[in-house]
Write a structure and sequence with these properties.
Elements: H1 45-51, E1 60-61, E2 71-78, H2 82-98, E3 102-110, H3 118-132, E4 137-141, E5 145-147, E6 161-162, E7 166-167, E8 183-186, H4 188-193, H5 207-217, E9 231-234, H6 249-253, H7 256-259, E10 271-277, E11 282-287
Parallel strand pairs: 2-3, 2-4, 3-11, 7-9
Antiparallel strand pairs: 1-3, 4-8, 5-9, 6-8, 10-11
């Protein structure tokens, strides 16, 4: 297993005008396979930024020596997981640079006293990211999942993708066949076709099964990378205050076929308190007016 930062110093800008820059190869020469998952002690954002000098303000990265074939926005729903966010950023930036893709990382921070709403945060991230760039692919990425193999290329396929197919917590197996949680990827066209995530899942559970049903209801297939590539380490954490299991999730799931057109991107409401471009990511702080209409 290689260190995720190994050989990255070989990525150097070319002394060429932009119009003369070559296209990146289909397979990056920096992709090597299984990666070690380990973190320095006392990890800070400043230390991570120092190790990623080619990342631009807002967490944007373009390969400095070729034109990228893939253009991907990473959306991370977030509240009160600072250590996990630092660890993910430490690993994810070099992981993506190894793949020679053009990417940006958006952290959507729920700043209110309401129950956590993962699906709605991801809808916000999609909308705000698409305002910045015409992204080809959107990755919806939990903060506690660390990719273990850089052959797991963060680009979209012809169908919506469930990417985190082998998580160590589940003994590197799918917990159930329709599982669509953790890390997923959709093209903007597919995401809008299914109306994004539901806005109605307050608390833990349900929103990932709901979007899997939306995909099926729209006659789309779910694709997955090989299990050897889609391996993830889940960072350990206790119970999240404000993210208790949603007691309404099974009732909501039973009505997805009736409600998917009416809850999602087309009725998304939120207050964007701030948008801050930090050295490693774009931070979107949002406050939800609690309008949990079923």
């Amino acid at each position: 297993m290689k260190d995720v930062y190994s050989n990255l110093d070989q990525i150097q800008p070319l002394d060429l005008a932009k119009e003369n820059m070559p296209t990146c190869p289909k397979t990056s020469p920096f992709v090597s396979g299984p990666l070690k998952v380990s973190f320095p002690v006392n990890l800070t954002l400043e230390k991570i930024a120092q190790k990623n000098p080619l990342v631009r303000l807002g967490g944007h990265y373009q390969p400095p020596n070729c034109w990228a074939l893939h253009h991907t926005a990473i959306i991370i729903p977030y509240r009160a997981r600072r250590k996990h966010l630092h660890q993910l950023l430490y690993h994810l930036h070099p992981f993506l640079q190894r793949q020679q893709i053009h990417y940006a990382i958006y952290v959507v921070h729920q700043m209110d006293n309401y129950t956590f709403n993962r699906g709605k945060l991801l809808n916000v991230g999609f909308k705000e990211a698409m305002k910045e760039n015409d992204w080809q692919c959107i990755y919806f990425h939990d903060v506690d999942l660390i990719p273990e193999d850089d052959r797991n290329i963060y680009s979209c396929s012809a169908f919506p993708m469930h990417v985190a197919v082998a998580i160590d917590k589940f003994e590197y197996k799918l917990p159930y066949q329709r599982y669509f949680g953790g890390v997923t990827a959709l093209s903007p066209t597919h995401y809008l076709k299914i109306n994004g995530f539901s806005n109605n899942y307050w608390g833990w559970g349900g929103e990932d099964d709901d979007i899997a049903s939306r995909i099926s209801l729209n006659k789309l297939m779910i694709s997955r990378p090989p299990a050897a590539f889609g391996r993830y380490h889940m960072l350990k954490h206790g119970h999240d205050k404000g993210n208790e299991a949603n007691p309404e999730r099974f009732k909501l799931l039973s009505r997805t076929h009736l409600k998917w057109r009416y809850s999602g991107m087309n009725n998304l409401m939120y207050h964007l308190m701030s948008k801050e471009k930090t050295p490693l990511y774009t931070n979107l702080t949002v406050n939800f007016a609690l309008q949990n209409l079923v």
